[in-house]
Amino acid sequence: MMNRGGYFQSALGGRMVASLTGLGLVGFVIFHMLGNLQIFEGGDALNGYASFLREMPILLWAARLGLLAVAVFHIATTVRLALRNRRARPVAYVVHQYRSASLASRTMALSGGLLLFFIVFHLLHLTAGLVDPSIPNRLDAQGHLDVYGKVIHAFQNPLYVAVYFAGQLVLGLHLSHAVSGSLQTLGLEHAALNRLFKTAGPAVAVLVVLGNLSIILAVFLGLIHT
Ligand code: HEM
Question: CA-to-CA distance for 81 and 72, rounded, in angstroms?
């Protein structure tokens, strides 16, 4: 019988870990998008929400550290699986697979790497304020951090609109395969559920990308402003 360490070292154990951690990260992306959509209700709503999260520092830091740990596990496991697959696969099989696999599934390593790049950029930009020194870092009339002002400032600039737009395309490509693949792994190829799982990935990807793009475009087109 395989011991627990052996299970997690195995390809199936690795896929389980990659799927569970990936779905956890998708949960964050959906939660984050829903929170950010409050920008359409105005500055008080978005800043009030952001400051509400900050009013529970222990919970907030626990969630941040948890998210970081899940992300590190996800990246480490998926990189290990990708390297293992590459070593194990004969060239002819790769060529054959490519014909039937979707663009999203063939480019998971590339889209994952680019997504990581985008997230680091995003944190340095909107959370740390290091990318653009002119980004406002002030309090609003209620004494809350003006997250609304930061987002408006960011997406009035076509350069950041282009970067975030590209980030959303990469996110959509990654999610459309990742969500379906993860559900299939956890459902262990349930024939009856397979079609549902196949549609879930692209559906989640489209919803998340449209939600995020609506914020970027609404600011850029001047529909929301300070
Ligand atoms: C239009 C799209 C997005 C907008 C407007 C946006 C906005 C923001 C803002 C304003 C913050 C800083 C919040 C604060 O300081 O209180 C933030 C943090 C963050 N964002 Fe985004 N974001 C977007 C997309 C994304 C995506 C696609 C991801 C991940 C794939 C992501 C991951 C994060 C993370 C991990 C943080 C740090 C959270 C924390 O420190 O608690 N964001 N985002």
Answer: 14
Q: Which of 21, 40, 212, 26 is CA-nearest to residue 126?
A: 212
Query: What is the residue extent of each domain of the chain?
Result: 11-220
Pocket of ligand 1 (CB under 6 A): 29, 32, 36, 50, 64, 119, 122-123, 126-127, 147, 150-151, 164, 171, 212, 215-216
Q: How far is the CA of 102 from the centre of ligand 1 (A)?
A: 29
**Substitution site in 46, 68, 118, 127 for ligand 1 pocket (most atoms within 8 Å of beta carbon):** 127
Query: Is this structure's pTM higher than 0.85?
Result: yes
DSSP, res 168: H
Q: Are the beta carbons of 170 and 111 closer than 8 angstroms?
A: yes
For 69-122, the pLDDT digits (tens) are 999 999 999 999 989 888 876 654 544 454 456 888 889 999 999 999 999 999
Residues in contact with 59: Cβ distance below 8 Å, sequence separation at least 6, in sequence order: none
The torsion angles phi and psi of 225, rounded to 5 degrees, stand at -150, 175
All residues at 6 or more sequence positions from 25 whose CB lies less than 8 Å from its CB, including other chains: 67, 70, 71, 74
- Whole-number Å distance, alpha carbon 198 to ligand 1 midpoint, is 27
CATH number of 11-220: 1.20.1300.10
Q: Is 90 helix (H, G, I), strand (E, B) or coil?
A: coil
